[in-house]
Amino acid sequence: MDVLYTMLTLIAFSFLAIFLAICFFMMTIIKGKSIGDQKYAPVKGTVFNQLFYLNTLYDYHAQMAKIHPTYRLLAANHSELYTIDVRNIEHVLKTNFDKYSRGKYSQDIMTDLFGEGIFAVDGNKWKQQRKVASYEFSTRVLRDFSCSVFRKNAAKLVRVISEFYLEGLVFDMQVSSYLYFHVNTRIFFLEVIIEEPLI
Length: 199
Prior knowledge:
By secondary structure, this protein is mainly α. It folds into 2 domains: 2-102, no CATH class; 139-194. Helix content is 66%, strand content 7%. The chain contains 8 helices and 3 strands. A 3-stranded mixed β-sheet has the order 1-2-3. A hairpin with a 4-residue loop joins strand 2 and strand 3. Helix 7 (139-167) runs antiparallel to helix 8.
């Protein structure tokens, strides 16, 4: 009987310890985040909410943006701001660009992948990288390059559709269109990055 009592006590204390750890973790997330302050965007959960919607994450954010054009998700040491409000985007990217930076947290993550490139740096380094990149991303260069990529892949799509027609097969045009544009977009950007044709 003593063994059963000891096991039940151990299990109860284990659950209590887990519960207290979760409560402590949630308190560190919530503490100091100005949750009820009207000057800040409303809080719509924690970053862990995204785990529930992992398969439909873009749809989840689109639904949240329909309800609240600007909202926050809390994490343990920061909060993430999501916005589709044009005024906020213009404020950050155009009007007061110098006042906003990626921050150390974001730079530490991005530097491993992008190095000292335009996506990972701030300030003067960013301006220098942007000036260099602006020549490659001019309207004329992008238009000429994208036209050749889309023309080449459109010919492939016509060939595949012709084969379906000649064999008397049926296919879903909506899925085909999605795949065509999705694959073309990926191919286009990969060719821009590595500067040689993939196909």
